Amino acid sequence: QLDLLWTRKQNVMYNLFDWPTQKHSKLIILAIANTMDLPERIMMNRVASRLVCLSTLLFRIWDCNNIVQRCIALLLVCLYLILAKLFPQLVGNVTNLSLHLQVAALSGDARRCLDICRRATEICEFARQKRTPEIVRMAHVTEAIDEMFSSPYVNAIRNASLHEQIFLKAILAEFRRAGVEEATVQQIYHHHVALCRMEGQQSPTVSEIMAICSRLGACRLLLVESSTKYLQVRVRLNLSQDDVMYALRKE
């Protein structure tokens, strides 16, 4: 995960990509990034110069149909006979299953979709111990989704102030722009001001934005660098971007 190895001096990435260039080296490095132009966007010249045999392979983000096809294929290969009994809705009416639509709208991550299927099965199994046997229904799937996206962090975001929520939106915007899951308060502040203009809100002062950052750090929603750099302090999310987007979306 190349964007997680980014540092200010980029020594980690330099050393990593320098190893294959050494004499008699047989090392091949496969690097994964969330943006296709990450080398050009963030790498210093001395790091980029190490990429002597760079070959890029682009994987497009999965949409709803991709998730449906891959998730069901995996489930059918592993447990087709069980699926035919436990997941008739998954097998018989895949394209209309709201589970996949919700997961695709959030992240495009099929692994989360499989996790929801697993948890829905567990909920159904638990219900069987108390009542008559039944198959996995959409009620179980919905309960699994609510459970997965109802962590204390998600609830804290939903109960946060308006500007705290805008600050989190600004973080997501900066992460998407830079392709790196770390940013300075100054970079986030620019997005925060732009979002305030779009939503018709008064922009906070620099002191207020630092206070917002501190409160979110105190709630452990953010990991804030311990430093006196003020606006150059770097922050990271302490939960996944998917959870933040889920918490911030309107019903």
TrEMBL record:
Q: Name one GO biological process term.
A: DNA replication initiation
UniProt keyword Ion transport, yes or no: no
List the protein's name. Answer: Origin recognition complex subunit 1
Q: What SUPFAM superfamilies does the record point to?
A: Winged helix' DNA-binding domain
Recorded hits in InterPro entries, A to Z, give: AAA_lid_10, Cdc6_C, ORC1/CDC6, P-loop_NTPase, WH-like_DNA-bd_sf, WH_DNA-bd_sf
Where would one find coiled-coil regions in this protein?
Answer: none
Q: Which GO terms describe its molecular function?
A: ATP binding; DNA replication origin binding; metal ion binding
What this chain does, per the entry, is described as: Component of the origin recognition complex (ORC) that binds origins of replication. DNA-binding is ATP-dependent, however specific DNA sequences that define origins of replication have not been identified so far. ORC is required to assemble the pre-replication complex necessary to initiate DNA replication.
Q: Does the keyword DNA-binding apply?
A: yes
What is the organism of origin for this protein? Picathartes gymnocephalus
Which parts of the sequence belong to the Cdc6 C-terminal domain?
A: 168-248
PANTHER family recorded: CELL DIVISION CONTROL PROTEIN 6-RELATED (PTHR10763), ORIGIN RECOGNITION COMPLEX SUBUNIT 1 (PTHR10763:SF23)
Q: Which GO terms describe its cellular component?
A: nuclear origin of replication recognition complex
Subcellular location(s): the record lists:
Nucleus
Give the family this protein belongs to, as stated in its UniProt record.
Answer: Belongs to the ORC1 family.
* Gene3D superfamilies associated with the record: 1.10.8.60, P-loop containing nucleotide triphosphate hydrolases, Winged helix-like DNA-binding domain superfamily/Winged helix DNA-binding domain
Q: How does it assemble?
A: ORC is composed of six subunits.
List UniProt keywords, sorted A-Z: ATP-binding, DNA replication, DNA-binding, Metal-binding, Nucleotide-binding, Nucleus
Q: Which Pfam families does the record cross-reference, listed alphabetically?
A: AAA_lid_10, WHD_Cdc6
**Organism lineage string:** Eukaryota, Metazoa, Chordata, Craniata, Vertebrata
